[in-house]
Amino acid sequence: MTTTVTKARAALSGEEIVALCRKHTVFEWSVQPKVDPIPVARAEGVYFWTPEGKRFLDFNSQLMCTNIGHSHPKVVKAIQDQAATLAYANPFMATQPRALLGARLSAITPGGMDTSCFTNGGAEAVENAIRIARVVTGRHKILVRYRSYHGGTAGALTLTGDPRRWASEPGIPGVVRIPDFHKWGRKDPEPVEASLRDIEDVIRYEGGQTIAAVIVETVVGTNGILIPPDGYMQGLRKICDTNGILLIADEVMAGFGRTGRMFAIDHWGVVPDLMTMAKGLTSAYVQLGAVGMRPAIAKVFQERAFPGGLTYNSHPLACAAALATLDVYEEEGLIENARKMGDVLRKRMAEIAARHPSVGTHRNIGLFGIVEVVRDRATYEPMAPYNGTSEEMTALGRFFREKGLYTFVRWNTFFTNPPLTITEAQLHEGLDVSDEGLAITDRAVKSGR
Predict the structure, then answer these.
(1) How far is the C-alpha of 203 from the C-alpha of 92, rounded, in Å?
(2) Is the omega angle on the peptide bond into residue 37 within 30 degrees of 0, that is, cis?
(3) Dihedral (C-alpha) 59, 63, 68, 73: value to the nearest 10 degrees?
(4) Mapping DSSP to helix (H, G, I), strand (E, B) and coil, where does residue 350 land?
(5) Contacts of 375 (CB under 8 A, 6+ apart)
(6) Is 19 helix (H, G, I), strand (E, B) or coil?
């Protein structure tokens, strides 16, 4: 052990990195012996490399978070300069990065959300958002959907609808599920009017006067890149207003240009009461989350104590990284590039789908995309079961890895979420591998269909 640790001051091989990580650390959401991690030594732009020099195209922006790509010099310098000047100040103090970031978010968030509470990441932003909603309304119930993920902490996991919450149940009280606007295993979303009526039914049965908030991923992320039909978010806003319920938009994954707008909710012209942010806020260079709140909500804490706190709240290093990241979005036109490349992605995927009978459907909004793989287009039988995998999907994932394409292969889907800096040539590079790999799943399509 001493020899291995000493050697760590030099470069470890990929095999040594993996062995030490397996022995001394835990990989999330996984049976440990089944984990087969890629050892990563460095990254730049849309690529990363193993210690042995194998290059991967990062087609998932890691966890849909490195929106500006890897190792951007402007953000790296901002972190270095801030670390040399003031690496940390406790959250009862005021610093320039905190001041400037609060003002910056006030200027870019929908409807002038002029106050932000900073956290360490997305899950803690969600925890604080529901706590704020309960304090402000004096109510306790929170409405959530099944096809959702809100984070890995206790409250956020209870709000989560997908199977990651199962091991943590029972969770926090007061969480009530509403029907999804797009059900698993179906190609298309439900009609907007029916979805909204279903939500109104739940509110009627639960008692609107007991419900503090509805929290939704504006565009659902890991549960399917589910894009709400026009009218859904507007209708949900109206339902909330009618019943005095706060609308919380979870923009942790969809925010900061991913969908071709600064925030996904901007596509529908809706202003939420609270909005959670993280990931693209710093492009994950330093951990940071935030809860944006409308003025009427922030005003409550002029008269009563804010009910929360974190040692690393408003961390100067993270706030400096966020300010530099926001500069990069604007100066390099990355949100516009996400829109343009999103159009290229949609057109190219339509061409690929036409050639591959195992493609059930594909969806994207900007550079937030997914491909659903099926055994039978007529019945829409998925290529893998809910919360499971299959031989074919495993083989597809293995093919991507062999070809140097990194993306999520989850259940019967794979994702197309590259950094917003990607060029058209790089986008086609990833889609060429996807096109080739789909021959594997095509072989499993039922004959005669």
Answers:
(1) 39
(2) no
(3) -110
(4) helix
(5) 358, 381, 382, 383, 444, 445, 446
(6) helix
pLDDT in tens, 145-164: 999 999 999 999 999 999 99
User: For residue 294, which amino acid is it?
Assistant: R
Classify the C-alpha dihedral 113-117-120-125 as positive or negative: negative
Where does the pLDDT of residue 54 fall: very low under 50, low under 70, confident under 90, or very high at 90 and above? very high
Instruction: Give the SS3 label for residue 53.
Output: coil
Residue at 88: amino acid letter: Y
- For 257-291, the DSSP string reads TTTSSSSGGGGGT---SEEEE-GGGTTTSS--EEE
Residue 353, token pair as written in the block: 């789908």
> Of 189, 255, 191, 248, nearest to 221 (Cα)?
255
The one-character DSSP state at 115 is E
In this structure, the number of other CB atoms found within 10 A of the CB of residue 91 comes to: 15
Q: Please name every residue paired with 116 in a beta bridge, in sequence order, or none if there are none.
A: 292
Provide, rounded to the nearest whole percent, the portion of the chain with pLDDT above 70. Answer: 97
**Could you give the CA distance from residue 93 to residue 115 in angstroms, rounded to a whole number?**
17
Which distant-in-sequence residues (6+ apart) come within 8 Å of 123 by Cβ? 150, 151, 152, 153, 156, 289
Token digits of residue 111? 């409807």
3-state secondary structure of 25: coil
* Ramachandran bin of 434, using left for φ above 0, alpha for ψ from -120 to 50, beta for the remaining angles: alpha
Full-model pTM = 0.96
Burial of 317 (0-12, 13-18, 19+ CB in 10 A): buried
Structure tokens given for 391:
């031989």
**Count of alpha carbons within 13 Å of 359, Cβ hemisphere only?**
21
Two tokens, residue 25: 């650390």
Span between the terminal Cα atoms of the chain, in Å: 58
DSSP letter, residue 45: B
The model's pLDDT over 289-313, given as tens digits with 9 standing for 90+, comes to 999 999 999 999 999 999 999 999 9
pLDDT digits (tens, 9 = 90+) for 200-213: 999 999 999 999 99
69: alpha, beta or left, given left = phi > 0 and alpha = psi -120 to 50?
A: left
- The residue whose two tokens read 């202003």 is 271
pLDDT of residue 112: 83
User: 383: how many CB neighbours lie within 10 A of its CB?
Assistant: 24
In sequence order, the 6+-apart residues with CB closer than 8 A to the CB of 436 are: 399, 403
Amino acid 173 reads P
